[in-house]
């Protein structure tokens, strides 16, 4: 699997007649706290920006998980000026509890796509599950964030946006380490939950509450008829 994103998928879609292609990626699906955040990004198929690396090496755009925090932050500064357009959408912890992750993710993605200046002809989703369906034309690709420039750009912008959002909660909830863990499981996060219980930003239907006897009674049980099934949290 390539570690540097290219335009292989976009070029295939262009040959099929798609002119405006949006790459979509999400972050926050498996977190205990905070929203799920989606970015939709559109490029003009020009070469993506690169960052200076060690020596004469360049740091090239790829899946945000393969970049250091410093490189993600640096890319997040230059990508908005390079992209043809992009938009962010999210679903709150309350929506996730009420609707389930699949529907919450779908709604966050629709919010991002509808916020673009022009609707895309085709959407590239990272993974193998088309949770958007009609009327959107969708191409699902496993590891698209490592293969598609547009999805890689969306991956970086979604990750940085959510990390900054969660870090902004640190002053109010310093014990939970949101600036470091971004609401994902961590020893500091677990200890804070055991001692202080969940905050208003926690997902109250999540199974982590099963391991907190003192706070287990707060767990919400979602109506199984709400939403349309669940995606893996991995």
UniProtKB/TrEMBL annotation:
Compartments, record wording: Cytoplasm
Swiss-Prot/TrEMBL catalytic activity: Endonucleolytic cleavage to 5'-phosphomonoester
Keyword match Hydrolase: yes
Cofactor binding notes: Manganese or magnesium. Binds 1 divalent metal ion per monomer in the absence of substrate. May bind a second metal ion after substrate binding.
Pfam families linked: RNase_HII
UniProt-listed Enzyme Commission number(s): 3.1.26.4
InterPro entries hit by this protein: RNase_HII, RNase_HII/HIII, RNase_HII/HIII_dom, RNaseH-like_sf, RNaseH_sf
PROSITE patterns: RNASE_H_2 (PS51975)
Keywords: Cytoplasm, Endonuclease, Hydrolase, Manganese, Metal-binding, Nuclease
GO BP term, pick one: DNA replication, removal of RNA primer
EC class: hydrolase
Needed co-factor(s): Mn(2+); Mg(2+)
One GO cellular component term noted in the UniProt record for this chain: ribonuclease H2 complex
UniProt cross-references to NCBIfam families, sorted A to Z: PRK00015.1-3
Function: Endonuclease that specifically degrades the RNA of RNA-DNA hybrids.
Family: Belongs to the RNase HII family.
PANTHER family: RIBONUCLEASE H2 SUBUNIT A, RIBONUCLEASE HII
Protein name according to UniProt: Ribonuclease HII
The organism of origin for this protein: Actinomadura rudentiformis
